[in-house]
Design goal:
mainly alpha, 12 helices
Length: 305
């Protein structure tokens, strides 16, 4: 990555765009495999490629068992619960754009979890942002509520909503846990351990709840390749480049564009519609996130779809 000459101002945009395609890649791949089966194969190939990167960069492995344990916990939460929840929600019919809108509350979730788990003070500004973000989420979900069925929305059930909310909690708690216990980890070897932990989680779920069947068509192979090479590998290398160039912190501000970016791409690729009420909800979520995030410490990305 030392020969990469792309402007530091451009790299965060590329990184965030790649991140946004994760929701779409999930929707492309799920017709051919169950959610955790798809993730299982994604993690297997990702681990193999990361081993090559680790060998090439001569990354250092954690020296203690407790460091490995902390990385395993983060991997289970961020890659297992977070990705698994989003993939399952999309499998159960939730539009990719809507799942991205809910996940857009992540910085608010991190602020709340930081207050609950790390006893960090949650300021009035952060509480205001949380309330505004929740109002935005309510607007996004309310218009899809099926009033004839207490547990259903338009096109998906309450279980899809619960799955993506579990995903939101997974990445929020995982990010706070990583901040507390894994701040000194080597980015590549630490990520390998996290993916290995997620592989174990997905493997158990596949054994007990899924068939493990895969329809190995060309569209599935292509979307799996994109998830491995672009999302799980490419995004990590871009993040390394941003850290080296001192631009990693600026990525936080670009994350406000994730939900609208996913919604536009989902509309173009899958004909997912978005109403004026949903647009207003997205604006409120983004505004809530914006006023919650500190100017001195903008949220850094902790995972990718």
């Amino acid at each position: 990555m030392s020969n990469l000459t792309i402007s530091p101002k451009v790299i965060p945009w590329i990184f965030v765009w790649i991140w946004s395609t994760g929701f779409l890649a999930a929707k492309f791949g799920l017709p051919y495999a169950e959610p955790f089966t798809l993730l299982l194969y994604r993690f297997v190939f990702t681990l193999l490629f990361l081993l090559i990167v680790i060998r090439f960069k001569k990354s250092l492995w954690p020296k203690s068992k407790i460091q490995i344990f902390h990385l395993m916990v983060v991997g289970a939460l961020i890659h297992g619960v977070y990705l698994g929840g989003v993939f399952q929600a999309i499998k159960w019919g939730m539009p990719a754009g809507l799942s991205a809108m809910i996940i857009g509350l992540q910085p608010l979730g991190m602020a709340l979890m930081g207050g609950l788990l790390l006893k960090e003070q949650v300021s009035k500004r952060q509480w205001l942002g949380l309330i505004i973000g929740l109002i935005g989420l309510y607007l996004v979900l309310f218009e899809r509520l099926d009033l004839t069925n207490e547990l259903a929305f338009d096109g998906f059930s309450i279980w899809a909503v619960l799955a993506v909310i579990a995903s939101l909690f997974g990445i929020s708690i995982g990010a706070v846990y990583q901040k507390r216990f894994c701040g000194e980890m080597d980015l590549i070897s630490g990520t390998w351990i996290q993916y290995f932990s997620a592989l174990l989680v997905c493997g158990l779920i596949v054994i007990f709840f899924e068939t493990g069947a895969v329809n190995w068509t060309m569209p599935f192979i292509l979307t799996l390749a994109w998830q491995v090479l672009a999302l799980s590998i490419g995004a990590i290398l871009l993040l390394m480049t941003m850290i080296k160039q001192g631009a990693a912190a600026s990525v936080g501000s670009y994350f406000y564009l994730i939900a609208p970016l996913v919604a536009i791409q989902a509309w173009f690729l899958f004909n997912e519609t978005i109403s004026l009420i949903s647009i207003l909800g997205v604006v409120l979520i983004s505004f809530g996130v914006a006023i919650t995030s500190s100017k001195k410490e903008i949220m850094k990305p902790v995972s990718n779809l």
